[in-house]
Amino acid sequence: MDGGRARLITALDVTPGEVADEHLLDRLLKEHRGTTGRTVAEVVADTKYGTYANYVALEQQGIRASIPPHSTMSDRGDYSADRFVYEFAADR
């Protein structure tokens, strides 16, 4: 999104679910630059983009990363699928 007053979306990528978001960052940065002709000062993104490789790449380009770190299930306190048992008779 352009940081100006209009807040226009300048780059987007629609992918199937099996495509990992963190691998899209470079492509989106290039699309933004090509669309606007402007450099990127800051990237604001969700945790899927918060990988070490993305932080390093942004820092090397002098771009501020406003991205929470990518967390694992144990960090979030989520339960993995193997902790659940399907009860066929009760369909639950």
Walk me through what this model shows:
It is a single chain. This protein is mainly alpha-helical and 92 residues long. Helix content is 27%, strand content 7%. It has a two-stranded parallel sheet with strand order 1-2. It is elongated.
Give a brief outline of the structure.
The protein has 92 residues and is mainly alpha-helical. The protein has one domain.
Layout of helices and strands:
Blueprint: H1 25-36, E1 42-44, H2 52-60, E2 64-66, H3 73-76
- Average pLDDT taken over every residue: 83
Q: Structural class, from helix and strand content?
A: mainly alpha
What is the total domain count?
Answer: 1
Quaternary state, please? single chain
| Beta-strand content | 5-15%
Q: Helicity, in percent?
A: 25-40%
Q: Kindly state the number of beta strands.
A: 2
The helix count comes to: 3
**Unreliable runs, pLDDT <50, ≥5 residues?**
none
Which radius of gyration do the C-alpha atoms yield? 18 Å
Rounded to the nearest angstrom, the distance between the terminal CA atoms is 42 Å
What gross morphology would you assign? elongated
Biggest beta sheet attributes: 2 strands, parallel
| Helix-strand sequence | HEHEH
Give the strand line-up of the largest sheet: 1-2
Identify the notable features of this structure and list them briefly:
mainly alpha; 92 residues; elongated; two-stranded parallel ribbon; 3 helices
